[in-house]
Design goal:
By secondary structure, the protein is of the alpha+beta class. It folds into three domains: 18-137, Beta-Lactamase (2-Layer Sandwich), CATH 3.30.450; 143-316, 2-Layer Sandwich (Beta-Lactamase), CATH 3.30.450; 339-428, no CATH class. 43% of the residues lie in helices and 21% in strands. The protein is built from twelve helices and 14 strands. The strands form three sheets. It has a six-stranded antiparallel beta sheet, sandwiched between helices. The protein has a five-stranded antiparallel beta sheet with strand order 2-1-5-4-3. Mean pLDDT is 82; it is low at 1-17, 28-32 and 422-426. Residues 1-20 are annotated as: Disordered. InterPro entries: GAF, GAF-like_dom_sf, PAS-like_dom_sf, PAS_4.
């Protein structure tokens, strides 16, 4: 809450202007957008005020002869009455900058800001008889400053790659706070095929409504958003209760308290559909120029956020694909290395077995059919020598079933040679 700031006596202003001067002020401010009121006595009774004063605080309060605090109770507690009391008591002019006043209550409440000048009114003897108030409403300026600050913060969030859902929700709440009339904001995101709209952000709409419209098709006559997405142009529905576009959605809008909806398509730089930006209202309403400007500004901001999100998602997908390809390549390399190692191992085993066969062949001159396996290598093998094998060079050896298996698997030119024991058939049918 901004309080009135005391800036001391206004040395440049006259102590009093007299009756003629006040008449001039009445004429000067009579049709002005600045508010002007003459207050009398310590109770600050409204003696006269210009139309702008009553317009600012509510036409229903357009009456005089009552204390200003009775006419505008919202002024209490904002430093306004304290400033009036001080000026009346001291006779010194004061100014109040950015005095914040909340008019009304509940959903109809609205925030206004004023710069006030408070000057004493004096009689012929110089005694203070009241206070003259001149004010300029700065609400639009304050809102514009806040709007730019909020917009700058959103753009910074986009640059920092804040999650899209967080950016869109912050944007929706910002608009709802800054709009001069009560508004509920919704952002729907287009599917990759551009034929359906998905929930993006709608912090103030009921959950049942958000769930019901999540996934709606784009098409002519599909509410405000579906139609705006289909046409690629803004669709303004001022009265949901009577508009044919809402025939299939009125049963949702009524319990959600929605009476008007203005929807703007969110388009990428290449013209493709990114989503829709909608402003809902609890009463039938047509947009003003300020509403349309607000929609354009934040539709462009939403487009920036969504496009940036798509770029980041594509980048992440490409990085994931590259990582997957590298992993597959690494697996292939490891498999090739393993196969090579196994081949080298088999080659070594084959060479060793071939050497064993040659050694055994040399011994057969003295022992044609040894009792023990000759294929066991340096460690030897005590298993019975049951099968005779030979290679293509004519060398032969006797071995047990296990070592014969090994020789047949690893040494290509090896075959079973003892036909007297049944040969290959006996080996296979063992």
């Amino acid at each position: 809450m901004t309080s009135v700031s005391d800036q001391g006596p206004d040395a440049a202003g006259p102590a009093g202007t007299g009756q003629a001067g006040e008449e001039d002020l009445r004429a000067l401010f009579g049709q002005s957008i600045a508010v002007f009121a003459l207050l009398a006595g310590p109770a600050h009774v409204v003696e006269t005020a210009n139309p702008a004063f009553f317009a600012a605080f509510g036409q229903k309060r357009a009456r005089t002869g009552v204390p200003v605090v009775d006419l505008v109770p919202e002024l209490a507690g904002h430093g306004f009455l304290e400033a009036l009391d001080r000026v009346y008591r001291t006779g010194e002019s004061r100014t109040g900058r950015d005095v914040r006043i909340v008019l009304g209550a509940g959903p109809q409440a609205r925030e206004v800001f004023f710069d006030f000048t408070y000057e004493p009114r004096r009689d012929a003897e110089g005694t203070a008889t009241g206070v003259r108030v001149i004010g300029v409403e700065t609400t639009q300026v304050k809102h514009a400053q806040r709007l730019m600050a909020e917009h700058r913060a959103l753009v910074e969030q986009i640059a920092r790659q804040v999650p899209l859902a967080e950016v869109l929700e912050g944007m929706a709440r910002c608009i709802e706070d800054l709009a001069p009339h009560r508004v509920l904001v919704s952002v729907l995101l287009a599917d990759s095929d551009g034929r359906h709209l998905r929930h993006g952000a709608a912090p103030s709409l009921p959950d049942f409504y958000n769930q019901a419209i999540d996934g709606i098709a784009t098409g002519e006559g599909v509410g405000s958003c579906g139609t705006a997405a289909y046409r690629r142009e803004q669709v303004i529905v001022t009265d949901i209760a009577t508009d044919p576009f809402w025939a299939d959605f009125r049963h949702l809008a009524e319990p959600a308290g929605l009476a008007a909806c203005w929807s703007t398509p969110i388009l990428a730089r290449d013209g493709s559909l990114l989503g829709t930006f909608a402003m809902y209202h609890p009463v039938p309403r047509a947009p003003q120029d300020a509403d349309l400007a607000l929609a354009r500004l934040f539709t462009d901001t939403a487009a920036l956020a969504i496009e940036r999100h798509h770029i980041e998602q594509a980048k992440l997908a490409a990085e994931a694909s590259a990582r997957s390809a590298l992993e597959e390549l690494a697996k292939a390399v490891r498999a090739e290395q393993q196969l090579r190692a196994e081949a080298e191992q088999r080659a070594g085993s084959a060479a060793e077995l071939a050497a064993r066969i040659r050694t055994a062949a040399a011994l057969q001159a003295t022992a044609p059919h040894p009792e023990k396996c000759q294929l066991g290598g340096a460690a030897g093998c005590t298993a019975p020598a049951e099968i005779k094998v030979a290679d293509s060079w004519g060398d032969s050896a006797w071995g047990c079933i296990a070592h014969v298996d090994e020789a047949l698997f690893n040494v290509k030119p090896v075959f079973i040679a003892n036909e007297e024991s049944g040969g290959l058939a006996a080996y296979l049918n063992r």
